Amino acid sequence: MSETAIVIENLGKRYVIGKRKQGVDGMRHALEGVIRSPGAWLRSRREAKLRQVDFWALRHVDLSINQGEVVGIIGRNGAGKSTLLKLLSRITVPTEGRFRINGRAASLLEVGTGFHQELSGRENIFLNGAILGMTRVEIARKFDQIVEFSDIEDFLDTPVKRYSSGMYVRLAFAVAAHLEPEILIVDEVLAVGDAAFQAKCLGKMGEVAQDGRTVIFVSHNMEAIRSLCQRAILLDEGRVRADGEVENVVADYFARLSSSSARQLTGANGLVIEKVTLKNGEGQETRQLCPGEDLIVEISYNSPCRIELPYFLVIVEGIHGKCFTASMLLDGMRPEVLEGAGQLSCRFKGIPLLPQRYSISLSIREKAHQSEIWACKDALSFTVKTDLKSYGYKGDYLTHAPRSTSVVIPYVWELPDGTTVPVGLTIPREDSH
Amino acid sequence: MVTDNLPIKQMAPSGGFGTSSAGQLLIEAGRIEQQYWHDLWRYRELFFFLAWRDLLVRYKQTVVGVSWSIIRPLLTMLILTIVFGKLGKMPSGGLPYPLLVLCGMLPWNFFSTAISDSGNSMVANSSLISKIYFPRLIMGVSSVITSFVDFLISALLMVGLMFWYRFVPPVSALLLPLFTLLAFSASVGTGLWIAALMVKYRDFRFIVPFIVQFGLYLSPVGFQSSVVPGRFRLLYSLNPMVGIIDGFRWSLLGAQNSLYLPALTISIIEVAAILISGVLYFRRTERDFADVI
Prior knowledge:
The structure holds 2 protein chains of 2 kinds. By secondary structure, chain A is an alpha/beta fold. Chain A has 4 domains: 12-57, no CATH class; 66-258, P-loop containing nucleotide triphosphate hydrolases (Rossmann fold), CATH 3.40.50.300; 268-384, Distorted Sandwich (Coagulation Factor XIII, Chain A, domain 1), CATH 2.70.50.60; 388-423, no CATH class. In chain A, 26% of the residues lie in helices and 34% in strands. Chain A has helices spanning 26-36, 38-51, 81-88, 121-132, 136-150, 165-177, 195-210, 222-228, 246-258, 328-331; strands spanning 4-17, 53-66, 70-74, 96-101, 104-108, 183-186, 214-218, 231-236, 239-245, 272-280, 288-289, 295-308, 311-318, 321-327, 337-348, 357-365, 372-384, 411-414, 420-423. In chain A, the strands form 5 sheets. A 6-stranded mixed sheet of chain A has the order 5-6-7-3-8-9, with helices on both faces. In chain A, strand 6 (183-186), helix 7 (195-210) and strand 7 form a beta-alpha-beta unit. Chain A starts with a strand and ends in a 10-residue tail after the last strand. The relative contact order of chain A is 0.10. In chain B, 42% of the residues are buried. Chain B starts with 16 loop residues before the first strand and ends with a helix. Chain B has 12 helices and 2 strands. In chain B, 69% of the residues lie in helices and 2% in strands. By secondary structure, chain B is mostly helical. Chain B has one domain (33-292). Classes of the chains: A alpha/beta, B mainly alpha.
C-alpha cells in the first residue's frame, strides 16, 4: 500500500515586480520622503502599489506524488520548475494553496550549500551536513563513507579554497548523497562537474530511487529524466500541462516548443540574436523534414561590439537526449569577427533521424575563456515525418519508431544464407514493397 | 517499472525537514506559524554549528588568532583609561580605573559586536537563505552566541585584572549571570530588528556603526553613571545599556557603584519589549527574505 508522500493543492506563488523594490537607498529615500512631506509620501506609496505588476510564477497547481515514485519535472526556462522546488523546499512561502509532506524531505538545490572557503574539508563536511539537517552524531557516523565517496582523503584537512573545482563538487555531493531522507527533491545539480562525476551522481540517485524513496527531480536533461523517472510532469507558464508516462510527457514538451519561435535574447557584449530559422535542403523555411534531407540552421545576429573568433555550437536533441552537434570548439572553423548585423548558418547533410520530434539548442562562446556569450536551449523544434516503408523498412513493428533511438547510421546485415542487406535512412527508395 | 512488491527498505531517515513517517507537514499559504517553533528545536544544533563556523573562520583568518579576543579589549581599556581616567580625570570611586572601564566594556563589546554581526547575518548568508531551509532566527541568534564566546574570553581578562589588583568581588557577583542574561536578550532583540531591517533596506548597514559609535559615548563605558547630573539622569537612563552596564559594575565591583533602580527597571522593560517585538517583526518579514535578498 503506497501512501501519498506529497499532496499539493491549488498551489500558487506570486512575485511582485515593479518600482516597489527598495534598492540600496531605500531607507534614506523613505526617511526623506516622510520628513519632507508625509502626505505626498503616502500618496506616492499608494500609487506605487497600484503600479506593481503581479507575476504568477506558479498557479493552480494540483499534484499528488506517492511514496516510492520517481518523478521528473520538465519545462522550459521560466516555466516555474525552480519556484515549485523552492516552495516544496520551504525556501519561499506560497501565496495561495497548500501542500502536505509525509515523511522526512531534503532538498538539493545546489551542491556545497554553506561551504566556507577557509574551513578544511573535514570541517565543511560537518558544517554542510548540519545545514542540510543532519545531527552531529549522524554526520560522525557517516563520515568515513562520505570521505570514501568523495575520494579526497588526502586533502581532508586543507582549506577548501585550495580544492580543484572537481574535488569541491565531489565533496559537496558526497555529503548530500548520504542524507537518506524519505523524500528527495533535486534541482539540476547534475549540471556541474565532468561526465564521470555526472554518471556517479546519476548512479547514486538511481540507488536512492531503488531504495523505495520518493524522488522529485528537475532537469533539462531528457536522458537523465528518462533513465531515472517513471513519471514526468510538464510545467509551462506556471501550470501543470502534462502528467504521466515519461515518454508521453517528453513528447508533449517537444510539441509545445514547436509552437513558439526562439525568443530574442540578448547575450553578453550586447549581442542580439534576431532570428533563428530552419530550412530544408532546398532553402525553404520549414519545421518538418524527411530523413536524409539536409537541415539548415540559420542564425541572424546583430552585434554592436566587435566579437572576435567566437565559437558557435548547434546541438540537435531528441527525446533520448543529444543526437549530434556542430561544434566550432572541435572543428575550429570560427568566423573572424562578428560586427554589426550578419548571418551564419550550419547545414547538416542528410540527417539520419527517425520520425520523431527534435529541438535545436544553440550556444555562442567567446574566444578567451570559452564563456558563453549567448545560449538558448531548445530554441526551435522540428519534426521528422515520413513513411518508413519508403526507406525500405519492412518490419512489423514500425509503431516502435517513435521510441527507438533517434539516430540511424547506415548498416548492413550479413545473413546466415549469405545475403547482405543494407539499411539506411538516406534517400527514399523508389521501389517499396 | 513496478515496485509495488518490493518491500521498502527499513529506512532510518536522516537529514532534511518534515516529520517522522507517522506525522505530516502541512504548509499552507497564510498559516506558516505552527511548524516554526517545532523546527527551531529540530534544528537546534545549527545554533552552535553556525557560531562554531564564524569563530573558526575568524581565528583562521587572523594571525593572532584566539588572542585577538584578549588583545582588543585590553587595548581599548588602556585607551579609555588614559582618555577618560588620566586626561579627563573622571572619578572612579576609589577603584582602579582600568577595572571600572573593563567592567563596563564587557557588556558593551558583547552588545555592539553582537548587533553588528547579527544585523549583517542575513545579508552575509544570502546564498544560504536562497538555497536551503532552516529557521532563519537561528542565524540571527548564532551571531550573538559568537559574540558571547568573545565575551567569555574577555571575562577571563577581567579575572586576570582582578588578580592583578588583588581585588575580591563582593557576593553580589553571584547575580552577574542575571545581568548577562539581560545583555544577551538585548543583543538578540536588537540584532533581530537590525537583521530584518537590513534585508529590506540595504543602506541600514551605514547606520549600524553610527549607532554603535554614538552608543559608546552615551553609555557608561568610559565613565560612571554617577557623573551624570541629576536632572538628566532619567533621560540618560532611557538607554537600555545604562541599566545593564551599571548592573555589571554593581554586581562585580561593589557598593561604590550604587545601583540606580529606575535605570535597571527601565532597562528590563525596554529589553523585554525589544526582544518580543524583534522576534515578531523578524518572523513577519522572514517569509519574504528569500524573495527579496
